[in-house]
Design goal:
Nucleotidyltransferase, domain 5; 1463 residues; globular; Alpha-Beta Plaits; 37% helix; 47 helices; eight-stranded mixed beta sheet; 6 domains
């Protein structure tokens, strides 16, 4: 400790004035007195003092602070000056981050000098407190009730008068920067971010006060929010967390401030920015990976946000503590009118309570605010089915004693109620219907209805001596509430006589509670929904290399406070926007970040010093904005899950403000279910989930959706974790990262508008009667369940129990499914096929049709069948399901036509009729908003009606009924066959049929004539049915029909414009490779081009010539290196999590996903798509094990990776084009391989395999038969020559056109040796060639029949389909022998054909025959015969050479003695 008398110490004190806080009222004396009394029982009493602090108003305080900050009162010692911002000493914070930072500063080479400037450092109370372990907040509770003690403890948290100024303020010096200076970017060289958010400054402007408010919406809570942020060293440096009455958003009049930005160049990259660092490998990598163009950095976002006028703010409501915005009804009762859109219940913590979330109107403020109503004491309803006779509970035998209702009541009262501790319950005798599984339950019977508290849980399989079943034991309180009150979707509710919620249970502005369900009533006015507040969310994360934890470094938000769900998308798209920014733990701020971020016009950037500060600031923003809808891309399964994880890790205060229900513990589940629980009261709109249901796309990542839906061109900058970290090297790149994040949030919001996600979800929810939040998360089965639940409940039916029903179906379905599977084969992947037959698919008549083809289609076939035959739970007898053991299931009989319509047909008819009426209302005279709503309504009705059949065949549905589903599909097959036969009777050819459609070859080129044929077919079919309707779905001008569910066509439609008929054509593709995502874009482009030529009005030769030119261009593009890497990406979807694949080694996309997940960051999970490129990496592994993502290829360590050209030509482009050209004449797989410059021999072998058993084709010539065989190669016997020759026939033509023997002279013109003279050498050479082919056959190599799979193995898989082993590589196609017995026999026959001179001479023309006879001599004839005898001897050993009739009929002619000995 430094001595006060030390002259050096005194000299230092003189040279610098120290700021001290005067002890005006003896507070330190009181503290000393408290210490002296420590351990005694005396109580300290301190006289009350007044005016401890000087009180000034806000304006005077701001003036003093400004004056102090502008006063340069520190004397410069070296011309550079100390860093001092003039803050109050009590503004300093002692958070963990500051302590760590102070520690890091002390590690520098100036550590000793710094310590000299801080005399008495060890006795500093602050340093003592920093070293103390952290304590729980509970220990501070004692000081909250004692004002004096609280003041003393506050004094302890401030700087004592004897302590010197803080090290980070008084000792760090600011160096003068020159343009050419180089700065060492180390953590010790960066000034510590000071605290600029004082508690007193939170009340900068008086908030707008309104006369009504709820639980936590007053200004005190807002102050508390920001105080919590301050306590955790999380000050927003730019006063961003001030909770005043207006959101601080900059006006958007100028472009963001980026230094050295070249506005004239479109290729401006980050490396053009003036980054004051030395150029090293890391900086070069930054330039390569994070190379972002002007558009990518800011222009895209600037274009969007410059059109937005930000004039609106969020008003705070300071509501009375005991008042609710009640309205007096006509009957004199007080009620709260609210529009509800979400509900939540916690059956484990508060069973029987449902929380309704919505909005209510504040008349005095002329605005809508959030509202929460707690509906308590919702009872459980169970229905007890009495037995006919009493069952002995011990033995289970029937006693024969009849059961009456008093017996059931007594057993429930004495045994069930006592056992499950049900103290009170109500019961009555009711008549109910039941029409579900099990079929043994009577259709209509009397039940004992019992109502009791939801706190008690009864098992669903409970049985007794007097009752056999109970229903409704596990029905949730929310389901009972929706069904009893007949609430179908968001609507206006009247809450009668509500009470103020105490204590508050939510973060809503208005809170109320009702003790009984009867106090909730539907509002009959049906007013328009109120506007919703929408917040679009986008996160930017990095991975901490040490902890491997994901850290959130930026949260970008866009706010739209006036989103009307029943109108068109609002303009502008958003009203407010901001970005909360922090830094990664491992990265410092850029040196000029203060001025750059403050002056940036990209958005309002609110800088925080830690992730915990960022999260607390975000929660405060959420509480202030109070959004009703959170929009994001993959927000439900990733963004919110990351937010919850980081909130838990950082122990953020009041994390539940993320939703609207106050909670203590964060849900522990994962994925979508966790987000749904945490976000109760706020709707989560995930555009990724919605897009999967509404559109079909190659990939559902944000970039692909923007390109397909928003028609945005250009690549979206994909910032990896490392790229984000490196963007902290300069303020310019950091602002660019913020702009990209803001643009992602804007594009996500635009996607929601463009797809009409919320309006469509609202209409579907209103039809089905489920929760809107569940509709937004997908799941059609749940919607259909609720639609049927409402329908059956209104008709007095008991609905099936969820868990009990699922258990029973598993037990009952096991035998029928196994029996059905025994008669059917398994799929290629070994999965079981459906337990009942589905739709009928007719065998197609493959070919290319250039005359008009009619496409006839049944409108909504399965819903129409349900209506046509009155198929329902209530009409079909499902008790008999099997004829006998081991046989197929027997379908139930159709219901009697005299029965009244069932509930299922009635509901479908309502949907169909409603859609028809809505479509009638659509016309051009309607307003834009009304026209949009009608269109959305009819789409919702169509989606719901078409999915009604699905719940019958979905085994996890509560309304699963396999007999009904099988009956419906059976009638569909029957109707399709009847329609086909009817068309055939009209002398028309049906070339293809699939489930509900037929393709009919009209054999005509007259469009009007074709339409007449279609109308005639339609009339003949429709008169047979009441509800089924066949219609003309389209006319194909040209059709390429390849196989089942795979075709391409040009559809033609005739329209009348200006009294003239015009033909409009459009291409339609179904099931082809070019519409699948698991092919590269290069292959898809080549396939689309080939298809355009095939379907175009071209001649055969011109069509082939264009395809050839395209393929040669692709080949040359690979050779020249002009093919874009993005075209080589192959996209495949994960059907399960990567770690759950048993054969991950052989699956490219799984290997890439595993490596991607190992690097940290966003995990690839089930349902995600993975893009990769097959590369040459120097290894000998198969292609499936050489897959790399685009990000991996850009890594410096993988600079040697190059695309595998052979793979893309042979297994990507070739298969796609070859399958399209399979039916064309003049082009085949061999020619396509030649166009691409790859070896065509393998494709010749494949053609031979396919034609091996083709007996219907015309006979082929010897040239066609042996075209894929290997020639005979031999060398000249002359030692000085050794020329290698090939022989493919007995003769060959000379240059002058004459015919000569192939062995008559050497191929070397300078050699005089005659080859046929070396007879023994030729025979030996032929013997070796024959043995080589025989060895190749017995090697047993097998290859995959799919040409796109390169698997080649001698190992036979255990799994087989149709007697062929399944490929161990792709797992989908069959393995075939690479060189089979047919190939060997054909090769030997080729050799025989090659050396049969006599046969060859006889086949020559007369003039040619005379020429060769002159050259034919005995010596030559002897050589040819020796070679022919050699090959004939080999053929005699083959089983192909002879047919032994005695062997074939040996079993019929065996001696009796031999036959009897075998038995």
């Amino acid at each position: 400790m430094a001595d006060a008398n030390d002259p050096d110490h005194q000299e230092k004190d003189i040279g610098r004035a120290r700021r001290t806080k005067q002890d005006r009222e003896g507070r330190f004396a009181a503290l000393q007195k408290l210490k002296d009394l420590k351990g005694t029982k005396n109580k300290v009493t301190i006289t009350e003092v007044d005016n401890v602090y000087e009180e000034v108003d806000e304006r005077e305080y701001s003036k003093r602070v400004q004056r102090r900050q502008e006063d340069d009162w520190i004397i410069d010692d070296d011309g550079s000056g100390y860093i001092e911002d003039g803050r109050e000493v009590f503004d300093d914070d002692l958070g963990d981050d500051n302590a760590v930072q102070a520690k890091s500063v002390g590690r520098g080479h100036k550590k000793k000098d710094l310590l000299k400037c801080v005399p008495g450092r060890k006795n500093n109370i602050k340093n003592m407190l920093i070293g103390m372990p952290s304590k729980n907040k509970e220990k501070d509770a004692k000081s909250k009730d004692d004002d004096i003690l609280g003041d003393i403890m506050q004094e302890l948290n401030s700087t004592p008068s004897s302590a010197p100024p803080r090290q980070t303020v008084s000792t760090l010096k600011r160096k003068a920067l020159t343009p050419g200076s180089t700065i060492n970017r180390t953590p010790t060289s960066i000034p510590r971010a000071g605290n600029t958010l004082g508690a007193s400054r939170l009340l900068k402007a008086e908030p707008k006060r309104l006369p009504f408010a709820g639980g936590a919406s007053n200004i005190d809570d807002i102050i508390d929010d920001c105080t919590l942020i301050e306590e955790s060293n999380s000050q927003c440096q730019d006063y961003s967390c001030k909770m005043d009455n207006q959101m601080e958003i900059d006006e958007f009049d100028s472009q963001p401030e980026i230094k050295n930005y070249d506005s004239q160049s479109t290729d401006a990259t980050i490396d053009k920015f003036n980054i004051p660092c030395e150029e090293n490998v890391e900086q070069q990598e930054l330039k390569r990976i994070s190379s972002i163009s002007e558009f990518d950095l800011t222009s895209g976002w600037e274009t969007i946000k410059n059109n937005v006028d930000v004039n609106q703010s969020v008003a705070f409501l300071d509501l009375g503590s005991n008042e609710l915005p009640l309205i007096e009804g006509d009957d004199g009762e007080q009620y709260l009118r609210m529009y509800w859109f979400d509900a939540y219940e916690d059956p484990y913590v508060q069973s029987g309570t449902v929380y309704l979330f919505g909005k209510t109107y504040i008349e005095s403020a002329k605005t809508y605010v959030s509202c929460c109503v707690s509906v308590k004491n919702i009872e459980k309803h169970i229905y007890v089915l009495p037995r006919e006779t009493v069952i002995d509970p011990r033995t289970g035998q029937d006693t024969g004693v009849p059961v009456n209702f008093m017996d059931v009541y007594e057993e429930f009262n004495t045994r069930v109620a006592d056992r499950y501790k049900i103290a009170q319950f109500k019961s009555r005798r009711v008549l109910k219907k039941y029409g579900f599984e099990p079929a043994s339950i009577p259709r209509e019977s009397e039940y004992l209805e019992v109502k009791y508290s939801a706190e008690h849980n009864l098992p669903t399989n409970l049985k007794g001596a007097t009752f056999s079943h109970i229903f409704g034991a596990n029905t949730s309180a929310l389901e009972n509430f929706l069904l009893d009150k007949r609430i179908k979707g968001p609507c206006w509710l009247n809450v009668k006589n509500p009470q103020k919620a105490n204590p508050p249970v939510s973060w809503c502005k208005v809170e109320a509670a009702v003790p009984h369900i009867d106090q909730i009533e539907l509002d009959v006015k049906r007013d328009a929904p109120p506007p919703l507040a929408v917040l679009s969310l986008s996160l930017r994360t990095v991975v901490n290399s040490r902890s491997q934890q994901v850290e959130i470094v930026a949260i970008s938000c866009l706010v739209q406070n006036e989103f009307h769900i029943d109108r068109a998308a609002p303009q502008p798209a958003f009203q407010q926007h901001f970005c909360i920014l922090s830094r990664p733990t491992e990265e410092p701020w850029p040196l000029d970040h203060r001025d750059s971020l403050t002056g940036a016009t990209v958005t309002k950037i609110e800088r925080t010093e830690s992730e915990r500060a960022l999260l607390n600031c975000f929660l405060a923003k959420i509480n202030k904005i109070d959004p009703d809808v959170i929009v994001g891309h993959d927000v439900a399964s990733y963004d919110l899950d990351i937010l919850l994880h980081r909130l838990a890790q950082n122990k953020a205060d009041k994390w539940s403000r993320l939703g609207r229900l106050r909670r203590t513990n964060i849900p522990q589940s994962k994925g979508v279910s966790r987000s749904h629980l945490a976000m109760s009261g706020r709707l989560v709109c995930d555009v990724k989930i919605s897009a999967k249901e509404l559109i079909r796309a190659r990939s559902y990542d944000l970039e692909s959706l923007c390109q397909q839906v928003l028609n945005l061109t250009g690549l979206r900058p994909d910032l990896s974790s490392d790229a984000v970290k490196k963007m902290y090297s300069s303020s310019a790149s950091l602002i660019g990262m913020v702009a990209i994040t803001m643009q992602d949030a804007a594009n996500t919001l635009r996607l929601m508008y463009e797809l009409n996600v919320l309006p469509l979800a609202l209409q579907i929810t209103s039809i089905a009667g489920n929760l809107l939040s569940r509709t937004l998360l997908g799941g059609r089965s749940e919607r259909n369940e609720y639609l049927l639940l409402h329908a059956f409940h209104e008709k007095g039916y008991i609905v099936p129990d969820r868990q009990a029903f699922k258990k029973s179906t598993k037990a009952e379905d096991s035998e029928p499914e196994d029996g059905a599977i025994e008669k059917t084969s398994r799929s290629k992947k070994g999965r079981r096929k459906p337990a009942y037959a589905g739709g009928l698919v007719l065998d197609p008549k493959r070919g290319f049709y250039d005359k008009y083809v009619l496409l006839m289609d049944f409108n909504s076939l399965y819903p129409s069948i349900i209506q046509e035959f009155n198929i329902c739970f209530t009409t079909v007898d499902r008790q008999i399901t099997k004829a006998s053991q081991g046989e197929e299931e027997v379908l139930p009989d159709l219901p009697d036509s005299a029965l009244p319509p069932g509930i299922l047909p009635t509901e479908i008819r309502k949907l169909v009729d409603s859609r028809r009426e809505v479509k009638k209302l659509i016309n051009d005279k309607l307003s834009k908003d009304l026209l949009l709503q009608y269109d959305i309504r009819q789409k919702a009705l169509k989606l719901t009606a078409n999915s009604m059949y699905g719940c019958l065949g979905f085994s996890n549905s509560r309304f699963y009924a396999k007999p009904l589903a099988a009956l419906i599909t059976s009638k569909g097959r029957e109707i399709l066959l009847q329609t086909r036969d009817l068309v055939r009777k009209m002398n028309l050819d049906v070339i293809y049929g699939d489930t509900d459609s037929l393709m009919i070859d009209s054999n005509s080129v007259d469009y009007d004539q074709v339409m007449k044929i279609g109308i005639k077919i339609k009339q003949e079919v429709n008169k047979l049915y009441k509800h089924l309707e066949l219609d003309i779905d389209g006319v194909f001008q040209r059709l390429l029909l390849l196989k089942k569910k795979k075709y391409a066509a040009v559809t033609v439609t005739q329209v009348v414009r200006d009294n003239k008929k015009e033909m409009i054509t459009q291409q339609e593709i179904k099931g082809l490779d070019i519409v699948r995502r698991d092919w590269s874009q290069l292959a898809i482009q080549a396939g689309k081009y080939a298809l355009e030529q095939i379907l175009g009005d071209l001649s055969a030769d011109e069509r082939i010539a264009r395809i050839q030119q395209k393929l040669e261009d692709i080949r040359d593009g690979f050779r020249n290196g002009t093919i874009d890497l993005s075209l080589l990406q192959i996209t495949k979807q994960l059907t399960k999590n990567p770690e759950n694949y048993p054969d991950a080694k052989n699956l490219s996309h799984v290997q890439v996903a595993i490596r991607t997940n190992s690097r940290g960051g966003k995990k690839l999970v089930q349902g995600d798509t993975v893009s990769f490129i097959i590369c040459q990496d120097g290894s000998n592994m198969v292609a499936t094990q050489r897959a790399y993502s685009m990000e991996e290829m850009k890594m410096p360590a993988n600079a040697h990776l190059k695309p595998d050209i052979q793979y893309y030509l042979a297994q990507q482009v070739h298969p796609v084009v070859a399958r399209l050209c399979d039916l064309l004449e003049g082009i085949d797989a061999v020619r396509i391989a030649e166009f691409l410059g790859i070896d065509p021999s393998g494709y010749r072998s494949a053609q031979n395999n396919s034609n091996e058993h083709d007996t219907g084709s015309p006979p082929v010539t010897d040239e066609e038969r042996f075209q894929s065989c290997e020639k005979f190669y031999f060398q000249c016997s002359e030692k000085t020559c050794g020329f290698e020759m090939s022989m493919d026939n007995v003769f060959r033509k000379t240059d002058d056109g004459y015919v000569e023997f192939a062995l008559s002279r050497c191929g070397n013109s300078n050699c005089k040796k005659i080859p046929f003279t070396a007879e023994k050498q030729l025979v030996n050479r032929l013997t070796l060639a024959i043995r080589k082919h025989i060895q190749l056959y017995y090697a047993g190599w097998m290859i995959c029949e799919d040409q796109s799979c390169a698997t080649r193995t001698r190992r036979i898989a255990l799994k087989s389909v149709r007697a062929h082993p399944v490929c161990i590589g792709c797992g989908t196609s069959n393995m075939v022998v690479e060189y089979n017995d047919f190939d060997l026999y054909t090769q030997l026959c080729y050799y025989q054909h090659m050396f049969d001179a006599s046969k060859a001479i006889n086949q020559l023309k007369p003039n040619e025959r005379d020429q060769v006879k002159l050259a034919h001599n005995n010596s030559m004839d002897k050589t040819y015969k020796a070679l022919l005898n050699n090959i004939n001897q080999t053929l005699l050993e083959s089983a192909y050479s002879q047919v032994n009739l005695a062997g074939l009929f040996y079993s019929f002619n065996r001696p009796k003695s031999e036959a009897s000995s075998t038995y």
